[in-house]
Design goal:
77 residues; alpha+beta; Ubiquitin-like (UB roll); five-stranded mixed beta sheet; 5 strands; Beta-grasp_dom_sf; ThiS/MoaD-like; MoaD/ThiS family protein
Length: 77
Protein backbone atom coordinates (compact mmCIF):
# COMPACT_ATOMS: atom_id res chain seq x y z
CA UNK A 1 0.00 0.00 0.00
CA UNK A 2 1.35 3.42 -0.96
CA UNK A 3 0.55 6.68 0.83
CA UNK A 4 1.52 10.20 -0.26
CA UNK A 5 2.77 12.61 2.40
CA UNK A 6 2.48 16.36 1.86
CA UNK A 7 4.88 18.33 4.03
CA UNK A 8 4.78 21.96 5.08
CA UNK A 9 6.83 24.64 6.86
CA UNK A 10 9.56 23.50 9.23
CA UNK A 11 8.84 19.87 8.38
CA UNK A 12 10.05 20.48 4.81
CA UNK A 13 13.35 21.72 6.24
CA UNK A 14 13.76 18.60 8.38
CA UNK A 15 12.77 16.03 5.75
CA UNK A 16 14.30 17.92 2.82
CA UNK A 17 11.31 17.56 0.51
CA UNK A 18 7.75 18.78 0.01
CA UNK A 19 6.28 15.36 -0.75
CA UNK A 20 7.16 11.80 0.12
CA UNK A 21 5.78 8.38 -0.77
CA UNK A 22 5.72 5.69 1.93
CA UNK A 23 4.78 2.04 1.64
CA UNK A 24 3.46 -0.47 4.13
CA UNK A 25 2.10 2.07 6.63
CA UNK A 26 -1.32 0.95 7.86
CA UNK A 27 -2.34 3.78 10.20
CA UNK A 28 -1.34 7.20 11.47
CA UNK A 29 0.21 5.93 14.70
CA UNK A 30 2.53 3.69 12.67
CA UNK A 31 3.30 6.64 10.39
CA UNK A 32 4.33 8.77 13.39
CA UNK A 33 6.69 6.05 14.64
CA UNK A 34 8.12 5.61 11.13
CA UNK A 35 8.80 9.34 10.76
CA UNK A 36 10.29 9.72 14.26
CA UNK A 37 12.62 6.77 13.68
CA UNK A 38 13.88 8.28 10.41
CA UNK A 39 13.79 11.94 11.51
CA UNK A 40 14.26 12.18 15.31
CA UNK A 41 14.24 16.00 15.11
CA UNK A 42 10.48 15.80 14.49
CA UNK A 43 10.07 14.89 18.14
CA UNK A 44 10.69 18.56 19.04
CA UNK A 45 7.88 19.81 16.78
CA UNK A 46 4.16 19.71 17.46
CA UNK A 47 2.29 18.91 14.30
CA UNK A 48 -1.17 17.92 13.15
CA UNK A 49 -2.01 15.20 10.67
CA UNK A 50 -4.70 15.47 8.02
CA UNK A 51 -5.88 12.44 6.08
CA UNK A 52 -7.55 13.27 2.77
CA UNK A 53 -7.99 16.90 3.88
CA UNK A 54 -9.52 16.06 7.28
CA UNK A 55 -7.48 16.85 10.40
CA UNK A 56 -7.53 13.82 12.66
CA UNK A 57 -7.26 13.62 16.45
CA UNK A 58 -6.92 9.85 16.92
CA UNK A 59 -5.24 6.95 15.18
CA UNK A 60 -6.73 6.57 11.70
CA UNK A 61 -6.46 3.68 9.25
CA UNK A 62 -4.77 4.63 5.99
CA UNK A 63 -6.00 3.31 2.66
CA UNK A 64 -4.22 2.83 -0.66
CA UNK A 65 -3.42 6.13 -2.38
CA UNK A 66 -4.65 8.34 0.46
CA UNK A 67 -2.98 11.70 0.99
CA UNK A 68 -1.62 12.58 4.40
CA UNK A 69 -0.58 16.14 5.23
CA UNK A 70 1.88 16.77 8.06
CA UNK A 71 1.04 20.25 9.35
CA UNK A 72 3.37 22.16 11.68
CA UNK A 73 2.08 25.01 13.85
CA UNK A 74 1.34 28.12 11.85
CA UNK A 75 0.36 31.68 12.57
CA UNK A 76 -0.72 34.63 10.59
CA UNK A 77 -3.43 37.13 10.12
Amino acid sequence: MQVTLLLFGRIIEILGTTTMMVEGIQDTDTLKVYLLNRYPTLNAINYAIAVNEQIIAANTTLKEDCIVAILPPYSGG
